Amino acid sequence: MSIILLIEQVLNGLQFGVMLFLMAAGLTLIFGVMGLINLAHGSLYMVGAFAAAGTAAATGSFVLALAASLVAAATAGAIVELTVIRRLYDRDHLDQVLATFALILIFSEGTRWIFGSFPLFLDIPEYLSGPVTLPGGIEYPLYRLTIILIGLAIAAGLFALIAKTRIGIQIRAGESDREMIGALGVNIARLYTLIFALGAALAGFAGALIGAIQSVQVGMGEPVLILAFVVIVIGGIGSIKGALVGAILVGLTDTLGGFLLPRLFATFMDASAAMSVGSALAAMSIYILMAGVLLVRPTGLFGGQ
Amino acid sequence: MRRETLLNAAVLLGLLAVPLWAWASDEPFIITLATKVVILAIAGIGLNLALGLGGLVSLGHAIFFGVGGYAMGILASHAQSYTPLMEWPLLIEGTKSMPVIWLLAVIGGACAALVIGALSLRTTGVYFIMITLAFGQMFYYFAISWPAYGGEDGLAIYVRNGFPGLNTLDPIQYFALCFGVMCVVLLFVARLAGSAFGLALSGARQNSERVQAVGLVPYRLYLVAFTLSGAITGLSGALYADLNRFVSPTMFSWQTSGEIIIFVILGGVGRLFGPVIGAALFIVLEHLLGGLSEFWHIYLGALLLIVVLFARGGLIGLLAGKEVAHD
What we know:
Number of strands of chain A: 2
Distance between the termini of chain B: 11 Å
Oligomer: heterodimer
Number of domains of chain A: 1
Distance between the termini of chain A: 46 Å
Strand content of chain B: under 5%
Radius of gyration of chain B: 20 Å
Number of helices of chain B: 13
CATH class of chain B: Mainly Alpha
């Protein structure tokens, strides 16, 4: 029974990690190509979740809701890039932090204005609800399994996009030398808007998928954003592979830490003390992981010098 | 006299005059607001030491603010429940004395900054921003999940702590105390900025290779600056907790870190009085805009965006012009 529970937790960790990857991939692309630190990425996650919840409430279709999250987040991303972010590429990081912090304030309060302060709910559709039996007799929620599969499929698609397509070549070229690809006739401004919208769409999609498990509310994006930062720091900024490895490491550490640490402490402490020490340590575990990685490799696992 | 010096003097006088007027016309709420400005200004002055002089964009200063707040909360809660903080190996009791609490808040803030700085300063630039933000979140979740001191609900302290010779429950006396602390901190930072250390730190911000070439180690300069900065912000956290007589994990939240940065930016980065003006402006805006609309953060966001995009140098930069190269 305990081993089944453990496998279930590993799957939960994987599911969390895959969602973190969708956030971290956009952040790391935007930083790698444009050199921009975007705090408002969490707001795009929120926009996706709200668009999905609104569409699902209006049409009742989950697929339409997911499509709406992609469209809404990409549109919001493109608008923000064209009006604000574009002016920040040449600025220092402090200005970028502040301007995107200001965007968070505007997005959060704007959403509160439109949708109110109460959380919305996005239901898992009939055909994805209920458990599925995995080999070995493990019962696992079908929806969470679907999230893992979708996430891995998107990761594969992203790797293919970067490695095989013309856009991917331009993105990689943009990472190494932006002036040169401009000189070679690539429309950099359009490329930047495109990358930003792509990152935004991934974040919004993640928001919609997670919105069906948790509630959809204002401020849901920032905790995930900060975890995505931890992922990028661990994986190395600018590296998609690093983002994937970091995201899964963080997802597993967070889930398994919360599951195992209280049980570990319970072997030599009384139950309530073990619960409080264990859960406090579990809350810190991913940051301890980050500190450990930094001590060994200050630029992250896959980061360049 | 330089325009900035005049402006600074005017700000200091204004900050004294408003609560005195409020005291004369019996408006204790205005005095509390002014006290809040002074305390938040101290937090900003702490950050400005790292951000303005050292160029370290820390998005984790809520850590030190919260550490100072919890230093006050933990000591005072033990004193108010008459339980010792620990009995072994030596007996430590809680306390309601502000000087002792301040000392521990400063030491706590400095220690936290020393450890976090030692780790985070191994990296630079955008990594540093993300890591300080992440460490802030770590403290936040730790405060929420640690049940001994209130967990998510926070800690309420029923009576404000005491300072020898003053009645701190009287708003104007507590304001005067905080104002005095702010002046001491301002004096300290002004002297520090003009000292050999301050010049070396400024040099490291502007060109770290050159500073290295003359035999200084930027990492050490940054670490000392970050530690001092954490100590000052810790002190302001203890004062803030005493103002509200309440400590909660919110003090550790990333929004708090963001707001402390906003004080510095609205006023002007690297200017001695920048955080004072910024904090005053923030509190005034909070009350003017907060009165207009429940969603005042939208306007704050728009204003911040305009300041960042178009009015670089903050309010001081606007009023007193560009910084003079030599003081």
